[in-house]
Amino acid sequence: MLLYWIWFASLSGLSGYQKARLLERFSTPEELYHGGWEQLPRGLDPQEQEALEKKDLTQARQILGVCQEKGIGILCYGDRAYPEKLKNIPHPPMVLYYRGKLPRWEERPLIGVVGTRKASSYGLQATRRISAQICACGGLVVTGGAAGIDTAAIHGALDGEGEPIVVLGCGVDVAYPASNRELFRLVAQTGCLMSEYPPGTPAYRWNFPERNRIISGLSDGTLVAEAPEHSGALITAANAIEQGRDVFVIPGNIDVASSAGSNALLRDGALAVFSGYDVVREYECRYPGKIQKREPPALAKGLEKPEEKVAQKPLPPEFSRSVENTGEKKGIDNPAKSPYSGVNKPTPQLSDPEKTIVALLSSQPVGIDQVIAASDLPSARVLSLLTMLQIKGVVQSHPGGLVSLKNC
Predict the structure, then answer these.
(1) For residue 330, which phi and psi values (nearest 5 degrees)?
(2) Which helix (H) or strand (E) holds 248?
(3) Residues 126-146: pLDDT tens digits?
């Protein structure tokens, strides 16, 4: 059965709408494959007929073999687990390849979070905080895997002990961007990596507008965090409006070009939000008992804020004096035996759970699974803590899913 779904999904020359229309006549792609031409709907154009004449299953067998070899799941349009919201969009994907665990689509509000790759510091911090709050308050974050806003949304979902759903514009076995390779591995352990493209598919530029319809299609509402004019995030917002979904916006600086597109959405009637709860409370009636106003533990303690750079701090009094007015010799800022500099690299404050994780690590890399087993904490919590410790510069990751204390 899977073989025929893969064949059907891979047929070029047929849109998702046309394929969904064919399935109204044939219950499964296998029936279509073996059916006679007299059973085909009337009015097919020559391009559609030519596409359906391609009965070679070689490519489908190869894709199925790769999925089995790499442990990649396949979700078909006809499966019970296929999300109903996605079935109702104009061009639904016939097959979704995934790594991780499929969420229970109908139990909690799904919120798409999108924005520019070249985000401002404000945009990144606001996205991360609000994404964490969405998860803590009972929602699930759906986003892409790009740099910038997408990456901040993934980190935020992990901060909020959520199960991020990341929709890729390439195969789920392709790390794009490469800098997110380790992050995608964490997502596959806690949430779900998903793509309509077969394994091995490169990140072609034209894949991303197609991917955007899946992000908005899976979601009850789409949050545009920060987007310039003509941004791909605005395509996602347009898809959401076409699909009858809500659009939310984090207000941005009116003098910053990267917020021009998202602020224009506000002018045109999108809902302004200032917290994750502002987003998910819109769905309290749809998901009774699932929404609660709650801060993620990391945010409640104020640990989500990055260490302030020295250039942003006022100079200490003794350094404010001119060189001409003092002959004092200053000691070096970072002696060899000091693990952290008192000026340039403050020792980060760690929560008790973070200290527990640090105590399990050394300079020798160990597997994350070993850390989870030794910690007696939920795996999602350990992964979130490791992510926060990496951000604070205490832990570093290594190839093969290994981590260690960072050498300073």
Answers:
(1) -95, 140
(2) strand 246-249
(3) 999 999 999 999 999 999 999
